[in-house]
Amino acid sequence: xxxxxxxxxxxxxxxEKIGLEAAALFAERGYAGVSMDDVAARSGVSRRTLFxxxxxxxxxxxxxxxxxxxRLEDLLAHEATGPGMAGLRSALRQVLTERPSGxxxxxxxxxxxxxxxxxxxxxxxxxxxxxxxxxHQLSRDGMLDENGVEARAAGQAVTGCILAASVWWAQxxxxxxxxxxxxxxxxxxxxxx
Length: 193
What we know:
The chain has helices at 15-29, 36-43, 47-53, 57-77, 84-98, 104-115, 117-139, 149-172, 177-190. By secondary structure, it is mainly alpha-helical. The termini are far apart.
């Protein structure tokens, strides 16, 4: 028996499931070989429902990255999380070990981000929000003025470090994603001298 929906009633959809289905399609056909209609069909949602959650195909690639950042942001807001880079690294390690990261689908997503200027550009706005949040974390110990150039530059450096390490991992490493990112952040913390 088919389920009858009333016209205009929104279809229930799980953005995480849709993101996984999209990544699986990208792995099978390549990013350019997948349309939003393909993703909708594979996910079992209407095109309209898909666009209610994702503005474009690039958003499907970035979705999991920003979901993980949302979890990190929540952890950084807890007073139990220490300030500065040490607190950030600890919280990030926790986020990346609590969720299934480092999968083949993560590799697909990060490869696409690294290889497609269009997809990278689509995530820039979210990276700006991430930079501001990381600048706040890095200034919590009072060593940096959160509104100053040093905190903003430090937040940008950490954002870039996390993203660059993730893309490098997808293209070159069999190690755990969490270990690759943490090693890159540890080097950044030591300085580049």
